[in-house]
Predict the 3D structure of the following.
Amino acid sequence: MTRNAWDQNHIKKLKRKLILDPDTNEVLNLSECASEFDIAKTTMRRRIIELRKVGELPKINKRNQFDEYNRPYSDSELKSISQMFEYGCSNEEVAQRFNRTIKGISFLRSKLIHQNKINYVCQPWSDDEDRWLLEHIELDANNIVSNTQEIVKRSERSKNAIEHRIHKLRVAGKIPSTTKRGASDPGIKRWLDSEKEINQWIFSN
């Protein structure tokens, strides 16, 4: 692929494929991205550097860099991690097995689900998790959870898992049901903005 072939479509494709470390913004799957575009890793690395310079990709945050967690994922690691997820292993178990941060593994899991490389598997919720969720969710005037993004960041669960659990807790009467909202309700905009922020944080798009 030549330099001039990199248009916005290629950049968008790269952003969907990239897996960035949530703490440092380092690329964790450079080999996979290079193979996807049929170019050498050195060429892909140079292209990523160029995209960082022009603001298409976030800059590396060296302040949060830790050598033991800043290693790229090898193809064999990604395969093994995907298998562990499919077998129902938790983020903590995978993080311990590969000497990674739980936050980094949680981010990788969400990315792999988004790329349809692993199936979404809902792990059973413990009583402690339910108590933590009930203690930390914030409801607006319509009983809509207003801090979903914060809950996603602080937990080991995906956005879908959290929303599903909140629904279950509403059915069980532990969280009040939402009230009917009209189109002019200002809460709708806050909810949509929150959804947008969550998706941007998880998928870096």
The CA atoms of residues 128 and 134 lie 10 Å apart. The longest helix spans residues 186-203. The chain is about 55% helix and 0% strand.
